[in-house]
Amino acid sequence: MTAASATVAPPKRRLRDRLPVVHQVRQSVGLQRGMLVAGLVMVGVFILTSLLAPVLAPYGFAQRKDASGAFGTQQPPSLEHPFGTTVGGYDVLSRVIWGTQTAIVVIIVAVLLSIFIGVALGLYSGYFGGWLDRVLVVVCDAIYAFPSLLLAIVLSIVISGGQSGLWAGVLAAAGSITVVFIPQYFRVIRAETVRIKAEAYVESAKVLGASNSRVVFKHVLRNATRTLPLIITLNSSEAILTMAALGFLGFGIEPTAAAEWGYDLNKAQSDVTSGIWWTALFPGLAIVFTVLGITLVGESLNDLADPRLRGRRRVAKAAGQVAETSVVPGGTLEAGPGGLRGLEDGESFDEHGIEVKP
Amino acid sequence: MSAVDLTPSPGVSTPGVKPKSQGGGFARYLLVRFLLIFPTIFILVTLVFFLMRTTGDPITAAQGGRLSPEALAALREAAGYDRPLLVQYLEYLGRIVVFDFGTTITTNRPVIDVLATYGPATFELVFYSLIIAFAVGIPLGLLAAYFRDKAPDAFFRVLAIFWYAVPIFFAGLLLKLVFAVWLKWLPVAGRASVGAELQLQTLPNKTGFYTIDALMTGNPAVLGDVLAHAVLPSIALGLLTAGIFLRLVRTNVIGTLSTDYVDAARSRGVAESRLLRKHAYRPALIPIVTVIGLQIALLLAGAVLTETTFEWKGLGFILAEFLESRDFVAVQGIVVLLAIIVALTNFIVDIIAAFIDPRVRY
């Protein structure tokens, strides 16, 4: 080993290993790969449906009649209306399809807003510390411990001011979800920042006279955001559930402004009691399908990022230090006595990554 | 800022507490943990108060459009909503200290009365759901851990994700459709049927907990009726939590199954099933106790939705009604009450966890 070779950068990983999701698909094995691929397909269907909604939907989301007259209310599924019609006289299939657009807009707005604010606050708090850090941590802990749906309800009242047009409704849903999510991003980014701040390369940068902003954005931010893709996927599914819950409780978007699954379920409540199943079933299934797809992707990514949970074949290749990342309740890895440390040693696995019982 | 503090900031949740004394740790922990309740409640009360007020005063929200501007102004003045916001805020804080959460606008009842009337229903629902969550989640989590990476594990894990993905109100509607409307096995909604309700309401010293009240009537038919009404809502709410418990138990048992003491037991020839039951299972339950504290918040949010779905007349149901009628004094009061309940529950759970597991005390 000569001095020259020591300065040569290690060969870059191939592109297909560095692309975010492709890398994980290649890394996964067995069930994990199955879950990840299934999730990706479902998310793909969801995104495609929302993009092609104008082509796919037989009618508009606020349409109650066509050339041959009014649709009629609570009509059972038929050729003209494969999923039937609602109590308000809308076509269920069309509203399910158009609903994907509302869902996607809410996800994008909510996730972007909460990432931007949560990351900014987390970086500041973790890097500079001080009294603002203390205050932010206490406030975020308080919000985190509180039923998020109740906070979302209060916020949606505030944001929409009682109206429920398209943008007021979307902003109310997205905004209330945002405030609930900020603590999650804040906690993760702050914890990472505190850790990274003590790393040798940050100290070196400071010794070299790098400004705070350079250190924060160049060194800390880029290393602290590793876990964000996981939180984003998991938060997206939570965003849909929260929006649907708000809609179900009557804080949704008016049917003439946009199609929203939670609102449709709210209106379907009395139908169920009289045995009318199609108005509740299809919007509900749309929620389940979308949330399931996103959660499968998120959970697989989470498991893959954690060497303790990953299928074992390629463990040596991509192992690394991993922060606490799962935000799905119950997904955390609070270690029991003895912790999860001992897990990697003392276990043996066959070539399929399946544990071999001693 | 040249002198950046390089030491990691101390966890703010334990200001000033250092692991100094090992002996009197528990009493100290108890005290510190108890004092921490207050900032949490204070922050939430402040947050909710100012958020609600950005929409305007509650009188305008509730009566807006129905009264002339003069009458509205008179009402606002009488209720003190024309004074500076800060004065109102301080006054509000002062009243909360003596457990006065305001009077509802629409029904003109103290909010604390609403808690007394509807609280027991929510408590019952949450209690039954927790039983279902434990009864379903823990055994399945154990099985999943035991069959790690084999077919049952895969099935249970996908099941847990599935339970998470089904919105609680959709699950409720489906359960209702199948078991109440189509099969007619169970009642559609409510906490008791009309006849049973009548018997319960005429009890001399009723508690509001229908199960207890039904026992006091001494009439098995009433008890059966009350329990039958509780089945579907409890399942809807319980399965959501069961999924969470399943995942927790699985992860933790897998962790403890590979610790040294389990290895030691295994090398002594202890059977795998006994290892699971005796050695790995109990330590794995400790973190679950801690996590239940966080689930209380989730359960209460879930209860709001479940109660609305099943017309279960608890706090969530009444909250939804007050929201509908834009009675923001009531909404604010109930939300603050729930915040206090959550903070207290978390405190109790943390104390229990510290009692079981000495490492939690610092």
TrEMBL record, chain A:
Start and end residues of each stretch annotated as Disordered: 332-358
Q: Where in the cell is it found?
A: Cell membrane
Membrane topology type = Multi-pass membrane protein
**Feature: compositional bias, Basic and acidic residues:** 349-358
Q: Gene3D superfamilies annotated for this entry?
A: MetI-like
Which keywords fit this entry according to its UniProt record? Cell membrane, Membrane, Transmembrane, Transmembrane helix, Transport
Q: The ABC transmembrane type-1 domain covers which part of the protein? A: 100-298
This protein's record includes keyword Lipid biosynthesis: no
Name-wise, this protein is Peptide/nickel transport system permease protein
Task: Tell me which species this is from.
Answer: Agromyces terreus
TrEMBL record, chain B:
Q: Where in the cell is it found?
A: Cell membrane
What name has this protein been given in UniProt? Answer: Peptide/nickel transport system permease protein
TM spans (from-to): 30-52, 125-147, 159-183, 226-249, 284-305, 329-356
The beginning of the lineage is:
Bacteria, Bacillati, Actinomycetota, Actinomycetes, Micrococcales
The record gives the membrane topology as: Multi-pass membrane protein
Cite a single GO BP annotation: transmembrane transport
Q: Which InterPro entries does the entry link to? A: BPD_transp_1_N, MetI-like, MetI-like_sf
Query: Which top-rank group of organisms is this from?
Result: Bacteria
The ABC transmembrane type-1 domain extends over 119-353
